[in-house]
Amino acid sequence: MANAIRSIALDKLVAHPASANRQSRVTFGKLVRNIERSGLYEPLIVRPCAGREGCFEIINGCHRWRALTELGYKRCDCVVWEVDDEEAEILLSTLNRLGGTDELGKKQALLRRLNKKRELAELGKVLPQTARQIERLVNMERPGAAVKAKAANFANPVVFFVDDTQQQIIAKAISLAGEREAKMTKAGRRATGLATIAKYFLDNSQIKSRS
Asked: What is the extent of the structural domain holding 174?
């Protein structure tokens, strides 16, 4: 069966060299704590490793593999897919990027139920959101369309790649644009700064187009 789960020794697994997915130290720590707490994890997706009999290359699940290793596991559950190099690279480019979005009402209800049983600080250690973000979601009211509009803009990820010089220029500009928001988190100031820069550009582009 193509999706049958097999138990494979951790030392027989290797990361695919083209895997670009990375987790922050904080996010990885949450993954470790979740597995340690529950003993549960999604099976890894692997394929036979060419030239290394009995070994398997990880297509999806490198962070789970590292977390399990850190926790002292010797074996883990895997699903073995027979795919060639091209298909493996397509999967590497999609499996960690394809996903949906949370429906706010159901997300709030779920977090509120959890918050009745656990403190925000404890939830912040295992959930993707920080304790502060969870608190904002739990306490957010939904009187109508206006709140839905705000919710739609909550914590939307923006990912792009730059070289070292571009990164320094962007970081300096974002810092200057968002420095007045002293009470915000670092991520909040960066988001505000980036939005300020974008709005300034748009406003000036409109002025130029009218002149």
From this structure: 164-210
